[in-house]
Design goal:
Elements (H helix, E strand, L loop, with lengths): L2 H18 L1 H4 L1 E5 L4 H13 L6 E4 L5 H5 E3 L1 H7 L4 E3 L1 H4 L4 E4 L7 H13 L1 E6 L2 E6 L3 E6 L10 H4 L4 E4 L37 H11 L6 H16 L7 H12 L13 H7 L26 H11 L3 H10 L14 E4 L4 E7 L9 H8 L3 H7 L14 E8 L2 E8 L2 H6 L1 H17 L3 E8 L2 E9 L2 H9 L9 H17 L3 E8 L13 H17 L3 E6 L6 H10 L2 E4 L5 H12 L1
Parallel strand pairs: 1-8, 1-9, 2-5, 5-8, 13-14, 13-16, 16-17, 17-18
Antiparallel strand pairs: 3-4, 6-7, 10-12, 11-12, 14-15
């Protein structure tokens, strides 16, 4: 049997198991793009599902009231009292729920699904309603993600027994595969291989041991494998679980969850040989040699189950485990911009009481708020069939959007810094520029030296322009620190007026020697820099001050405190620390 045929055979078996006990199996993560292979597997799943059991599809971005249920607006308006409406999770009770584009599923939706999978019930408390509905269903997550960074929610994948990857299966491989579900056992015989009886092994202990040897930390994994083993026996017409059932369950449920390759446990005889125990003396001349201790040695059930699970580890993962050990997922770049509340644009975030002249009217939410009171209001007003809406019922939509972040790098290019740390400061800015570019932020560059400060690079998304401006930055002259703070503040206020979120990253040793007037003098320059820092703080601009001196300077620490900035000494600020500091400052 070819590799693709074997994958398709497993897919058919999984479809049969999931359809037989949707909630018991939890479900399946199906990694495959839209096409005939995925459509055919879903069709087979529906064919195996018992008549009368529902199969519902959940679109991406489903609204919460449609998912969990809520107020039936039409019935409530007609009856004059709150009438509940079942959501999609309750409608899927007893059957299957197919979730499209699972790799883009929101955290709130995943939380509702996980709670229903855990309890088999759905508690609804919204729109003046409080009720509990049964919601025992199996979940099919359609994962169309590209690479490991795009995947179905881990909290849901942990609750589902199976993981199928049909991306490599061509349509030509979709032929019926005659393969018994229990590794060679026929319905007429329940005798397990290797001569074992039906009660000489403990499936719970075996599956737990195998999960531990594969590095699986989740307690759900061996429990799901045990359910699958019982289901395999039941579908094969047997009441007892055999070792073959346990092997097949471990292969299907535990193999794809492995985080390390299992090590073969040595036998007591092997341990004695390793410890230097005397070996068996050779037979005398002419005597028939005794049996080889290695020949005919039966492997333990745990070893056979581990090998079955090991065979199911994907080839790419197997190579990764051999080379690098446990899987590591690279962190994703965060979302750019701070969250901001908007009256008329952005992502809808529910509704609230308000004036429709100062926002967008949410008609459905308004009707929901008014519907439960119609009976009382009609009786108070002397009857009538018209809809009575009071000002307190009016709801407007709440929106939230992310503003664009502009990171303003303010670099001390004076003589002291040029002689000491300007080269390292440029290297630090290079790292920070790359981080900003990854997040699709804008960057700006301000430099101060000599008698004043200048905007070397206006806010831009061009990493090439930013690097070119940084490379051409000269060093030398005095340190007009107050002018640098003033220039950074002006750029930040301009970004804010344009609707963006400014973050100032200042690189300096904090030792000013040129006053605002351009006259040299450390005392006057220090006073001016502290005054500029306090004015900067009043503008409420988030900032980080990176001390570029060889050793942390008290002057730089005082300046950061006056600015309301986070202080970070460069000797202790590697790329990771600076990236984390800027990320936290961006919010």
């Amino acid at each position: 049997m070819s590799e693709t045929s074997a994958i398709w055979a497993d897919a058919l078996l999984v479809a049969r198991l999931v359809a037989a006990d949707p909630h018991g199996c939890g479900g399946v993560v199906l990694r495959a793009g839209a096409g005939p292979v995925r459509d055919r597997w879903l069709e087979i799943l529906r064919e195996n599902l018992n008549p009368g059991k529902p199969l519902r599809r959940m679109p991406a971005g489903i609204a919460e009231d449609r998912l969990v249920g809520g107020l039936d607006l039409a019935a409530t308006l007609s009856a004059g009292r709150p009438v509940a409406q079942a959501g999609l999770l309750a409608e899927a009770h007893g059957g299957l729920l197919v979730a499209a584009m699972a790799e883009r599923m929101g955290q709130g939706t995943a939380a509702h699904l996980a709670a229903a999978l855990d309890t088999g019930r759905l508690r609804v408390e919204r729109d003046g309603l409080a009720e509990t509905r049964p919601a025992r269903f199996g979940l099919v997550l359609l994962d169309e993600g590209i690479g490991e960074d795009e995947a179905a929610p881990a909290a849901l994948a942990d609750r589902l027994a199976f993981h199928l990857d049909l991306t490599s299966v061509p349509p030509s491989a979709m032929r019926p595969v005659l393969r018994p579900p229990c590794d060679g056992l026929s319905p007429e015989s329940d005798k397990p291989p290797h001569g074992g009886g039906r009660s000489d092994h403990d499936p719970v202990a075996e599956l737990s041991e195998v999960a531990a040897r594969l590095g699986i930390d989740s307690l759900r994994a061996p429990l799901l494998a045990l359910r699958v083993a019982r289901l395999l026996a039941r579908l094969d017409g047997r009441a007892e679980i055999t070792e073959a059932d346990v092997r097949e369950a471990a292969r299907l449920v535990l193999g794809h969850r492995a985080t390390r390759l299992p090590e073969r446990e040595s036998s007591p005889e092997e341990e004695e040989r390793e410890e230097g125990a005397p070996e068996t003396p050779p037979p005398p001349d002419g005597a028939a040699p005794g049996p080889d201790p290695e020949e005919g040695t039966a492997s333990t059930p745990d070893d056979r189950i581990v090998e079955a699970a090991r065979a199911a580890i994907p080839a790419g993962l197997l190579a990764l485990l051999l080379r690098d050990g446990p899987r590591l997922r690279m962190p994703r770049a965060g979302k750019a911009g701070a969250k901001a509340v908007s009256a008329r644009s952005g992502r809808p975030m529910g509704a609230r009481p308000g004036d429709p002249r100062r926002g967008r009217l949410d008609l459905i939410a308004t009707l929901r708020a008014a519907a439960p009171w119609q009976g009382i209001r009609r009786r108070a007003e002397g009857g009538g069939t018209c809809l009575m809406i009071r000002p307190d019922d009016i709801r407007i939509t709440r929106f939230r959007q992310r503003t664009e972040t502009t990171t303003i790098f303010t670099v001390d290019a004076s003589g002291s810094s040029a002689l000491e740390r300007l080269a390292e400061a440029k290297g630090a800015v290079e790292l920070l520029l790359a981080e900003a570019y990854t997040r699709r932020d804008k960057v700006a560059l301000v430099a101060f030296r000599g008698a004043g400060a200048e905007l070397v690079l206006a806010p831009t998304r061009s990493l090439v322009r930013a690097r070119r401006g940084l490379a051409a930055l000269p060093g030398g002259g005095g340190t007009p620190l107050a002018a640098g703070i003033d220039a950074a503040g002006q750029v930040a206020l301009g970004v804010r007026r344009g609707g963006g979120t400014p973050v100032v990253v200042m690189l300096t040793d904090g030792r000013a020697n040129v006053a605002r007037s351009g006259i040299a003098g450390r005392e006057r320059a220090g006073e001016d820099s502290l005054k500029a820092a306090r004015l900067f703080r009043e503008a409420d601009v988030r900032a980080i001050l990176i001390d570029t001196a060889p050793r942390p300077q008290e002057s730089a620490r005082r300046l950061a405190a006056a600015m309301g900035a986070r202080y970070l000494p460069l000797p202790h600020a590697d790329a990771g620390a600076m990236s984390a500091a800027i990320r936290s400052a961006r919010g």
